[in-house]
Amino acid sequence: MVKSDIQNIKLRFGIIGNTEGLNRAIDIAMQVAPTDLSVLVTGESGVGKESFPQIIHQFSRRKHGPYIAVNCGAIPEGTIDSELFGHEKGAFTGAISDRNGYFAEANGGTIFLDEVGELPLSTQARLLRVLESGEYIKVGSSKVQKTDVRIVAATNVNFADAIAEGRFREDLYYRLNTVPIKVPPLRERPDDIALLFRKFAADFAEKYRMPSIQLNEQAKRMLVEYPWPGNIRQLKNITEQISIIETNRDITPEILSTYLPDMGNSSRLPAFVGGKGAHSGNKSFESEREILYQVLFDMRRDVTELKKLVHEIMTEREAAGHHVAHPVDSGSHFLQTPTVDVISDVPMVMPQQYPQVSQIQPVNKVSSITPVSNVSVKHTDSDYQDTEVYVEENLSLDDVEKEMIKKALERHNGKRKNAANDLKISERTLYRKIKEYGLE
Ligand SMILES: Nc1ncnc2c1ncn2[C@@H]1O[C@H](COP(=O)(O)OP(=O)(O)OP(=O)(O)O)[C@@H](O)[C@H]1O
Ligand SMILES: [Mg+2]
């Protein structure tokens, strides 16, 4: 394919980079698009696999037909057959009417099966049949249905292992992998790293209406030498974190290293890799970040509530004549008011509803939920020595909180009541925070 065609595709699909491996992957996508062959896009998490099924669809004869992206890893095993192939009324409890699945909806178009390696074996058998004959059967039915769907699948798992361990059917793998497209990891594209950084920095500068962050020469070198386990998603994420948090826009290696995990420093915010909704698309990064902000926000609220509770318990016990080791006794500014942003060894409840964010390192190390009656309010010397660390972490959490509030207000067109509901805080607290952060 001519070089200028590849450049045009990159422009159209927002793909940055110019390394051989990337160009080759785009070239294959273009060549295979007009055929109906199945394509398997492979590559580590965050390398940018999601653009490829879109390119293939847009350059195929199906481009006016439907394009459906399904994240196979996000659908529970119990419902995936019904989601993909539909069900008949009465097929199972709750099946109150007939339902078409994605394979019926995508008739005449393309279906993108993201994280295809996560499909349960029973679903793999159904998928193999569609690939071989275009036929499928709705759950609870015996009638064979036909569909005309082009399948593009993606995975970041190693199929050789999955096949060897009996988790993935070998025959299905060969069917899906008629044409393989391999998207290279970022560490094999060193020349693209600075390009991507500059683009993301400019985008976030515009989004947050701030001057763009700039790297000095040594910081640039550090960026290129970093192995990027989370690939482009991680680079984008970190560029956004730095853009939001750092007031000094000139980024030195010292600052940069605090954002790169395993550089001898822990990242201020975790690099978030993986996990998204059932329908993945270009917005997946956005929603991951939102979830991350929400988790941090929730954690912060939980901690504040716990601190209040501890303070109340202490006050009650003191009133009842018990002596508690009160921090004020030792001259520290710990817990002088119920809202002081310092955390002791009080256990914190991790929000259960976000199981996919287990990589987050909580602000405070907490692993279990201890009944409140067992909460110890004794403070050791090391607690006091930790104060500075917490103050620093709280500064960046302030930024996150401010960002969360801004986003919630935007989402609800400035309606404070709805934004407060969304954030699960009272309107009064929201009002106070808006004032505090100057968000009026
Ligand atoms: N070449 C690129 N230029 C600009 N942005 C990119 C590029 N590649 C990826 N991105 C961005 O990086 C993020 C991750 O890409 P994508 O969601 O396609 O990853 P993925 O390979 O599907 O990862 P996973 O296996 O975890 O699903 C997205 O926000 C995407 O827009
Ligand atoms: Mg993906």
UniProtKB/TrEMBL annotation:
SMART domains: AAA (SM00382). The keyword Manganese does not apply. InterPro entries: AAA+_ATPase (IPR003593), AAA_lid_NorR (IPR058031), Homeodomain-like_sf (IPR009057), HTH_Fis (IPR002197), P-loop_NTPase (IPR027417), Sigma_54_int (IPR002078), Sigma_54_int_dom_ATP-bd_1 (IPR025662), Sigma_54_int_dom_ATP-bd_2 (IPR025943). One of its GO terms (biological process) is regulation of DNA-templated transcription. Residues 15-244 form the Sigma-54 factor interaction domain. One of its GO terms (molecular function) is ATP binding. Keywords: ATP-binding, DNA-binding, Nucleotide-binding, Transcription, Transcription regulation. Coiled coil: none annotated. This is Sigma-54 dependent transcriptional regulator. It comes from Candidatus Phocaeicola faecigallinarum.
